[in-house]
């Protein structure tokens, strides 16, 4: 599903001498979550010597959106801020009343009928869309709630976001500069979906890990 090297993402924080992070998933919805089941692996790249020149084809999948299109990641470090639903009351009040957010927004990022400062903060300035390592959670399906380790009860850290798209109609300010002139075409009808992965109705699948021990089971959450 994804393979990321520490040299490309120094903030990855792997265990011990590991420098390679891999995520696999089963391309079928499982009973407990109604989502593909994921498996996380930490490895040392130097120990991976028997590399397949041609990855094996997946014989059966449940949905086309569960089979990613092979592509290379181009990691880019960005600064994020908590989603408005994660903010303390006083900070949220300032966000909701601060008119300067409207100046910073892309015109297409806002609903013309209700361009609120909170809209600008949530869609243009706080939580980036797309695939990412770490970062904040863009809440929407549920309100924020604790993500606690099943083993030790520690608050878990965001590890990976598997996204249905890199940007959307309400988050165009996050489009990389090199992709701003890319238009839809018969060969590439959805440039915002380079991986062709589709989570539910266009949602994100978040993976969280325990900061106490990466041996503890990871947690998945859809938003």
Question: Care to describe what's here?
Answer:
With 223 residues, the protein is of the alpha+beta class. The chain has helices at 89-97, 100-104, 117-126; strands at residues 2-5, 20-26, 37-43, 132-133, 157-163, 204-209, 219-222. The strands form two sheets. A four-stranded antiparallel β-sheet has the order 4-5-6-7, with no helix packed on it. The chain has a three-stranded antiparallel β-sheet with strand order 1-2-3, with no helix packed on it. The two termini are 19 Å apart.
The structure class reads: alpha+beta
Helix content: 10-25%
Head-to-tail CA distance between termini: 19 Å
Percent strand equals 15-25%
What is the ordering of alpha helices and beta strands?
EEEHHHEEEE
The gyration radius over C-alpha positions equals 19 Å
Average residue-wise pLDDT: 89
Shape: globular
Protein traits:
3 helices; four-stranded antiparallel β-sheet; three-stranded antiparallel β-sheet; alpha+beta
List the helices and strands and how they pair.
Elements: E1 2-5, E2 20-26, E3 37-43, H1 89-97, H2 100-104, H3 117-126, E4 132-133, E5 157-163, E6 204-209, E7 219-222
Antiparallel strand pairs: 1-2, 2-3, 4-5, 5-6, 6-7
């Amino acid at each position: 599903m994804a393979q990321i090297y520490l040299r490309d993402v120094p903030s990855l924080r792997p265990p011990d001498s590991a420098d390679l992070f891999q995520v696999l998933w089963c391309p079928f919805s499982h009973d407990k979550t109604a989502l593909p089941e994921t498996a996380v692996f930490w490895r040392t790249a130097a120990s991976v010597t028997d590399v397949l020149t041609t990855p094996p084809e997946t014989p059966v999948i449940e949905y086309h959106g569960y089979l990613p299109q092979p592509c290379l990641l181009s990691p880019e470090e960005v600064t994020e801020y908590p989603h408005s639903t994660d903010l303390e009351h006083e900070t949220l009040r300032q966000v909701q009343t601060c008119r300067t957010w409207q100046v910073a927004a892309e015109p297409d990022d806002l609903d013309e009928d209700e361009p609120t400062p909170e809209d600008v903060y949530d869609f243009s300035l706080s939580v980036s869309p797309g695939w990412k390592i770490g970062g904040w959670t863009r809440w929407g399906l549920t309100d924020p709630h604790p993500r606690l380790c099943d083993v030790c009860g520690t608050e878990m850290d965001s590890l990976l976001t598997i996204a249905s798209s890199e940007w959307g109609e309400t988050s165009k300010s996050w489009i990389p500069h090199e992709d701003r002139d890319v238009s839809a075409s018969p060969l590439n009808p959805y440039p915002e979906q380079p991986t062709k992965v589709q989570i539910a109705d266009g949602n994100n699948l978040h993976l969280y890990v325990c900061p106490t021990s990466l041996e503890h089971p990871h947690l998945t959450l859809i938003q």
